[in-house]
Write a structure and sequence with these properties.
CATH architecture: Up-down Bundle
Radius of gyration: 20 Å
Number of strands: 0
Shape: globular
Structural class: mainly alpha
CATH topology: Growth Hormone, Chain: A
């Protein structure tokens, strides 16, 4: 896609390419971390409940960072904030590759960037969304968010394949724990590489007089979106990728190699659903696309919880993957469309932080359910809550039209 289509200048187009490269590097790291994380923690004799509590801790810490950065985004240039986040990613990887104590790992999970969800719920999100939306026109915004999401999903899928490295390295006498630590060191390197890319993003002029508040005229709709998005994330927190991996490990005895292959194809299906979502949104609207692709994916998840065999479970989960993420680029585009440009970083933050907080509560509950032998309940709760979210989203925002739909 040429600069004339997706950007307002050659500089804008170059910055968009840099964002895509950085997103790819980050999500490659998130892809393998989400899969190896439960295996890493189980190697230190963590219980299923403690793995869930660990995921909760990581998501809570991410929420605080994301909110802080989003609110700062209206007052400061985005580039140094992105650089700081990349350095924090590098420090997180180094800490996980060297620490083994239970309490120390929890502290790093809280203050670092480790992502148990496998998706891009992180400190980078509000800044990248604001940069991206500021460099495209209204008609190209959803397409660009689809490309941004596609890049991250494909990179994340490739990252899940890297999670099989400990099993392959075992043939050369390298222990699983040492191999997983090497992957965390690679995660640190990816953070540094992303930082080098962010450093080349063109600086944004900062207003001489800072706005009185990060959110102004769009405050009402942003708060309503934050509330309804939180219900979706609370449901999704019952089955973040690390917990889905744990469920497959414990219920079916899946190996790291088999799990990484499954998550790879799951990620590929999700990735190629993003361009489809952009096309559907142009024809049917952003909200309709979000709701009517999300509903059947939740029904597939409920069916998977009740399915009797592993092949049927994996088939249902793959169908779910092909549908469940179509709301990602459409939701991001909708949020950016209904707020003013100075509010974009804050809007991305305020709509994502309550989501992170909501999703941080449910993993520990899911871990407790797993420990109690109620292995199907996290999937059932996830699917049921997401269906409720879809119906509520349609009722609340079906009349809110972005500029290109008016």
């Amino acid at each position: 896609m040429t600069a004339a289509v997706v950007g307002r200048s050659d500089t804008d187009a170059a910055d968009l390419r840099r964002l895509l490269w950085a997103r790819g590097l980050r999500d490659f790291g998130d892809g393998f971390v989400a899969v190896v994380l439960p295996a890493y923690l189980l190697a230190f004799d963590f219980t299923a409940f403690q793995v869930g509590l660990f995921a909760t801790t990581a998501l809570l810490g991410s929420s605080g960072l994301t909110l802080s950065v989003g609110l700062l985004g209206s007052r400061f240039d985005h580039r140094p904030l992105l650089l700081a986040a990349a350095l924090l990613m590098a420090a997180t990887g180094l800490a996980f590759s060297s620490l083994e104590h239970y309490a120390a790992l929890f502290v790093v999970a809280f203050v670092g960037t480790v992502n148990p969800s496998g998706g891009s719920v992180s400190v980078f999100v509000p800044l990248e969304h604001a940069v991206l939306a500021g460099r495209v026109g209204d008609r190209d915004r959803t397409v660009m968010f689809a490309r941004y999401s596609l890049t991250g999903a494909l990179a994340g899928a490739a990252g899940t394949l890297a999670a099989a490295a400990p099993d392959y390295l075992a043939a050369f006498g390298i222990g699983q724990l040492a191999a997983i630590k090497a992957l965390f060191a690679l995660y640190a390197v990816l953070g540094l590489a992303a930082g080098a890319i962010y450093a080349r993003i063109a600086p944004r002029p900062v207003p001489v007089e800072a706005p009185k508040a990060a959110l102004g005229p769009s405050r009402g709709i942003v708060y309503r979106m934050a509330a309804v998005f939180s219900l979706d994330s609370f449901g999704g927190g019952f089955l973040v990728q690390s917990l889905l991996a744990l469920w497959l490990f414990e219920r079916f005895g899946l190996s790291l190699t088999a799990a990484s292959l499954f998550f790879f194809w799951s990620g590929v299906l999700s990735a190629f659903s993003f361009p489809v979502a952009a096309r559907l949104a142009r024809r049917f609207g952003l909200i309709n696309t979000m709701v009517f692709t999300h509903l059947p994916s939740s029904l597939c998840l409920i069916a998977a919880a009740l399915a009797p065999s592993l092949p049927l479970v994996l088939a249902l989960l793959l169908v779910r993957s092909a549908l469940s993420q179509m709301d990602v680029p459409t939701r991001s585009s909708f949020v950016m469309a209904v707020v003013t440009e100075p509010e974009r970083a804050a809007a991305a933050s305020v709509t994502s932080v309550p989501r992170s907080l909501a999703s941080a509560i449910s993993p520990s509950i899911a871990g407790a359910l797993f420990s109690a032998g109620l292995q199907a309940w996290p999937l059932l709760l996830c699917g049921g809550l997401k269906i409720a979210y879809d119906l509520l989203l349609l009722a609340m925002f079906r009349h809110a039209k972005p500029p290109e739909e008016r």
